[in-house]
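REQUEST ID: PR-0412
SUBMITTED BY: lab tech R.K.
PRIORITY: routine
TASK: structure prediction, single protein chain
INPUT:
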Amino acid sequence: MTRKITNPSLWDALIPVMFLVGMLALSVYLYGDNSSYGANQIALILAAGLAAVIGIKNGHGWKVIEAGIVTGISQALGAILILLAVGSLIGTWILSGTVPTMIYYGLQIMHPAIFYFAACLICIMVSVSIGSSWTTAGTIGVALIGISQGLGLSLEMTAGAIISGAYFGDKMSPLSDTTNLAPAVAGTELFAHIQHMVWTTAPSILIALALFLIIGLTQSESETSMALDQTLSLLDAHFVISVWALVPLVLVLGMAAKGLPAFPTIMVGALIGGVFAAILQPDAIERFVAPNEGAGTAIVMINGVWQALFNGFSIDTGNQPVNDLLSRGGMSSMLNTVWLILCALTFGAVLEHTGLLERLVVAALRMVTSTGSLVATVIGTCIGANIVAADQYIAIVLAGRMYKAEFRRRNLDPVNLSRTLEDSATITSPLIPWNTCGAYMAGTLGVATFAYLPFCFFNLVNPVIAIIYGIYNIKIIPLNTETAEIAKARI
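STATUS: complete
OUTPUT:
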């Protein structure tokens, strides 16, 4: 006998969300920055269980809910594979001397006073050219974190600069998947979408760059007093520093710029790093694996690269900050992040497939009275979806689908919706610890999400500017007759 499905009430939708917020707050209170190493995962699973109970109460069968969970998780398997590949890439790139070489040269040319500004600018250029915030953070970002540590600068501020620059490119590059997804969902054209985003994105990144420059110029000399000569000498003593070590970086950025898929690109980059490790750093590999007497050179090289791929690289230089700088990577280092993502996606999938997420959006629409409140509601929905569904793609698709008709009804061009989706869903995703993007950035850069969040100036300023534009009707384009017919056909 098929049970009748009842539409959820607003309280049905709010209860699991409020429960999760309470559990996460308690988790942070009890465990601080370590809350993402198990406590948050349990909170997400318990909240998913509560949402499932409410769904069953409303007539949804467990098998249907379970199928929804599997579907939700499967949508993020590509991201999980990329995350694991980045772990391997970090391990072999340290072993090959690629990361040490970037740090070595960076320490010599990057002045502390302009470091945050330059880090953000570098990530902007790389991310715009390849269209991927994840690849930017996993390659250039890792090196910038190392340079920051070598200069004695704030890792949290550096991570904020990296993420600000990386997500500018993720938002504005025509090669970016989110930049293509948002206009497709909203029903507009790619380059019209990019052109319209300039009005909110340009002032946001200029404000961020100005803040990074001011902070760098005003910091005291004592904040950057780490002994650079000792760091440089230790890098030189334990690795062959050579421009040849930068070849894996050039190849990966080249493949990404050509639009090749992220997972094979990064995995190939990790393997290339392993090859260059065997060629350039045989002594470093021998120190790393401490081979048994009589082991052949080929076996030692394979063993070292293999370990770097699955368990990362470790070193003892006699200097703890340098050890911390270089002892990183491996697929295993990303397993906790994968655990967090799986639990978060489980919660989001249960909410979506039991109708609880849609109920929250319907309630939000009732508060819309003007263009400004509509833009603010879309932004709030996208941020909320990033929190509860834990994935920026779900946030873009869900909000785009829900508000597309409302924008047309209010005679607003769909580029207004597509821009708003990017002004919120895309750039707030790395600010949430259990979101796939937040978990990735924390795992890749080695800085907790809540630690770097206050310094992601671009990501924080952009939604505010978008709301101001909506309230004061700045660069809000009305829907003309021709566009209206196209939009109507696409709904």
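NOTES: The chain is about 75% helix and 0% strand.
REVIEWED BY: pending
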